[in-house]
Amino acid sequence: MKNILKYIFVCICAATVPALLVINSIQAMRYKKLEKEVTALEKKQVELVEENKRLITDISLLSGSDRIERIASTELNMHKAESEEIVRVEMKGRN
Q1: Highest taxon of the source (predicted)?
Q2: HSE on the CB side for 31, CA within 13 Å?
Q3: Which of 1, 6, 45, 80 is the most exposed place for a label (fewest CB within 10 A)?
Q4: What is the pTM of this model?
């Protein structure tokens, strides 16, 4: 009886070692896959941050008051209103 239990224990240990190696290799493959995904996402994040910086710079350049004034005067033939050209309209609230 003691020999049979010893034999079963050895068989279980012998079967456990390859099973653990297979599980370890599966985990290693999953880790590599996730590592590649994280690297790709970090690269994409850097690209998006750079694009965001570029867009913010473009916004500040395009919304500059000098540029808007130049476009208004040269392309749209607009000019600054003189004080006598300004009409004020007052609206009284309905009671």
Answers
A1: Bacteria
A2: 6
A3: 1
A4: 0.56
